[in-house]
């Protein structure tokens, strides 16, 4: 199946995952969650008690690790993520993984290995890929690029509501502080930092519903806005 590559980047809590999944479903394209890949690697490293400061060791583990995403109609959520054949969709969203994924993803060796894996997924045909360096590093020649953002307070409120629904006892202040820390790590890391691609369409989702963001992206794709100049 042939189709466009759509890159959606942005900071934590901006709504990338929900928007990207919906866009992929609406356009009948494959969905690639690059953040889930780093989370899965972090989960495996913690299970195997790998030193999270050991970049080469983590990269070697990534090389021998199978990761894949699947869409399974009828399941909640329908988009599932598998690590070495195990469904880890819920496990990779734990607080423990969230607290350490930035450290794991900051290693140059790890990012090089993961980018290799991510690029192979484009062989399936058209896809919607979301993350923090999709439009700048993984798919710099993507057909369409979008950068989704929102204010820190808005992103913290969204993450807080999400965590409370999942049963975590957290405060909004603590979530906001963690959001600021995560932003700093993502934007200042030495390799492949979070930044907007020069040719990306920026969408500030503060105060917007998911359906509004999705419709804006779909309209941009139909109209050719956000299309990479080649």
Structural topology:
Elements: E1 5-9, H1 16-27, E2 30-33, H2 34-47, H3 55-63, E3 67-71, E4 79-83, E5 86-87, H4 95-105, H5 108-120, E6 127-131, H6 134-138, E7 144-149, H7 152-165, H8 172-188, E8 201-204, H9 210-223
Parallel strand pairs: 1-6, 1-7, 2-6, 7-8
Antiparallel strand pairs: 3-4, 4-5
Indicate the mean pLDDT.
90
Helical proportion?
A: 40-55%
The helix-strand sequence is: EHEHHEEEHHEHEHHEH
Rounded to an integer in angstroms, the radius of gyration calculated over CA atoms is 17 Å
Helix count, DSSP H or I runs of 4 or more residues? 9
Largest beta-sheet details: 5 strands, parallel
Distance between the termini: 22 Å
Strands of the biggest beta sheet: in what spatial order?
2-6-1-7-8
CATH homology superfamily name: P-loop containing nucleotide triphosphate hydrolases
CATH level-1 class: Alpha Beta
Name the shape in a single word.
globular
Q: Give the beta-strand count.
A: 8
Determine the structural class based on helices, strands and strand pairing. alpha/beta
CATH architecture: 3-Layer(aba) Sandwich
How many domain modules? 1
- Strand percent estimate: 15-25%
Could you please say which CATH topology applies here? Rossmann fold
Low-confidence stretches: none
């Amino acid at each position: 199946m042939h189709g466009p590559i759509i890159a959606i980047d942005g900071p934590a809590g901006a709504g990338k995952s929900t928007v990207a999944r919906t866009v992929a479903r609406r356009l009948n394209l494959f969905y690639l969650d690059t953040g889930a890949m780093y989370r899965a690697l972090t989960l495996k490293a913690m299970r195997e008690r790998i030193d999270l400061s050991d970049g080469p060791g983590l990269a070697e583990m990534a090389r021998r690790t199978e990761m894949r995403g699947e869409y399974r109609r009828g399941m909640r959520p329908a988009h599932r993520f598998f690590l070495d054949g195990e469904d880890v969709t819920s496990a990779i969203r734990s607080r423990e993984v969230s607290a350490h994924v930035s450290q794991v993803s900051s290693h140059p060796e790890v990012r090089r290995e993961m980018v290799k894996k991510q690029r192979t997924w484009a062989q399936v045909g058209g896809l919607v890929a979301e993350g923090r360096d999709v439009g700048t590093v993984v798919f710099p020649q993507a057909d369409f690029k979008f950068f989704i953002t929102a204010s820190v307070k808005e992103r913290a409120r969204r993450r807080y509501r999400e965590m409370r629904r999942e049963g975590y006892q957290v405060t909004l202040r603590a979530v906001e502080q963690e959001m600021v820390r995560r932003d700093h790590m993502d934007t200042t890391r030495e390799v492949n930092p979070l930044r907007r691609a020069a040719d990306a369409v920026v969408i500030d989702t503060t105060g917007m519903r998911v359906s509004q963001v999705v419709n804006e992206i779909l309209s941009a794709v139909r109209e050719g806005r956000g299309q990479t100049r080649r």
